[in-house]
C-alpha cells in the first residue's frame, strides 16, 4: 500500500507546501522544530483542514480540495500513535485493545488480536490498567490498539520521544516488526538518526514547510545538509548478517564478505540486519594500520569528498561492505592527499557500533 500527500496551508510563521509519494513501509518525516512535521500528520489525520491539497492511501482518497471531498477523522481508518500512549486510564489493557478493535469495519479484514498481542509481547499485561505500566509497555499497548482498528495507515508522531534510552531500545524492535509483518503504511515523525536508520523505508526531509529531499535512509543520512540533527547525525547504513557470537563478548558480522565486530547483540546467527556507523566514529589512513586496538579496518577507495563552510569534511569511502562515511578535518584531507579514487583504510572502533544503531533489515517487498 502506498501513500500520496499534497498539502498547502498557511500558519503563523510557516507556509506549508509539500508534495511526496511514499512506498509501502515506514516513511519518516524529519526536520527542525517548526518545519511542518506534525502539521502534515494532523492534516492527514483530519485534525487540521488544509487550505489546499489531496491525500490518498493506496488510491483511497482521504480528502481532495479540488473535488470538495473531505472525510472526517473517524471515517479515515487511521491509527494514531502519540508521544504518550494516551490510553484510557479507567480501562484495562484488554479493554483498551478492544476499544481499537471496536472501530474496525465489519466488512474488512481484521487483525487477529492473539497475533497482535503475541507480536507486541503484551499478553501478561492484559488485566492491568495503564497506571501500572511502564512507558515502554504503554507504547506497546498503544501500537496494538492502533493496529486492531484495522487502519489503512498508521501515524506515529515522535512515539519514542518521551522514553529513556532503555525504553526506546525496548520499543524499536516492535516498530521493525510492524514495518515488516503488517501491510499497513506508516508515517513516522522523529528527530533521531538511529530511528531513521533502523526503521525508514523512505525519508522526507522538511525545511520551513517544504519537502527539500525525499529518498532512502542510506542516502539521507549521508547528506549533512538534510540529515536529522545536522552534521552529527551523518553516517553510513550497511546491510549485514550475523556470522558468529564469540566467547569474549563480541559479535562478528558479515558485511558482503567483509568482517565487522561489535559488542554482543541479541540476534541469532544468520539474522539479516541494518547497522548505522556514525561518520564521527570513523578515522582514515593511507596505509593499513598496525598495532591499533580497533578491530574494524576496511580497505577502500575514496568515492566523494564534501567540504562544508567550517573546518570539516565528509569523506565517502567505497568498501566491500558498502560506502562508509568519515567526518574528518579539511586539514586531514590535505595531509592524506585524499582525492576521489585514492586508496585508503577506514578504521572503526568496535565500541562505536552502539546497540541502538543495530536493527532488523527491511524485508524485500515490505
What does the average pLDDT come to?
87
Question: Would you identify the CATH architecture of the largest domain?
Answer: 3-Layer(aba) Sandwich
The global form is: globular
CATH topology heading of the largest domain: Rossmann fold
Rg from alpha-carbon coordinates? 22 Å
Task: Tell me what the structure shows.
By secondary structure, the protein is an alpha+beta fold. The chain folds into two domains: 222 residues, P-loop containing nucleotide triphosphate hydrolases (Rossmann fold); 124 residues, OB fold (Dihydrolipoamide Acetyltransferase, E2P). It has a six-stranded mixed sheet with strand order 7-8-9-3-10-11, sandwiched between helices. The protein has eight helices and 21 strands. The model has no long low-confidence stretch (mean pLDDT 87). It is globular, with a radius of gyration of 22 Å.
